[in-house]
Amino acid sequence: MKIKNLKTYQKMLIVVDMVNGFVKEGSLADTKILNIVPRQIELIKENIREGNLVVFIKDSHTKDSCEHKRFGELLHCVKGSSEELVIDELKQYEENSIGIEKNSTSFMESPAFRNLLYTTTNIEQVDVVGCCTDICVMNGTMGLANYFDEWNCDVDIIVHEDAIATFLEDERKNYVDAAKLLMEQQGIKFVKKLNK
Fold this sequence. Notes:
Helix content: 25-40%
Strand order of the largest sheet: 3-2-1-4-5-6
Shape: globular
Order of helices and strands: EHHEHHEHEHEHE
Number of helices: 7
Structural class: alpha/beta
């Protein structure tokens, strides 16, 4: 699928930070995040098949990025390293998507993502998957909800609960629960696949 005129898209799937630096290697990686990949693949394939827009958000920092200080000087997803690359399990879907780098915990602050929003003016639904639930997923979706409210855009934001995770999730359960509560309070919907 080639990316068509961005004004024609009505639905967008955002895949947040499914990069090596959060999943496979580095100071903030947790291989348990791989457990959500099969559901993500289902959703990515479904959206590509339906002709929807798929966007891969990729954490990407310079070594002197201010964000590192917020995480105890833990360098992560440094430009030019393998940590900033989408994990191998999802890499094949990049050719049918738009890739956007971000230098903060919110994809909404990425100038490239803002430009994408200015162009995709007919979006009615945004689905979100990825990591980390209590940081990048929450910050991005909360900012997105505020953006749509500011511009009076009636857009549903749906987070797929079975396709999100965070590092050290058992230890960070309070943060994850709080993040979900805050997102729901903002009108962001949570769904998960029904087991048959």
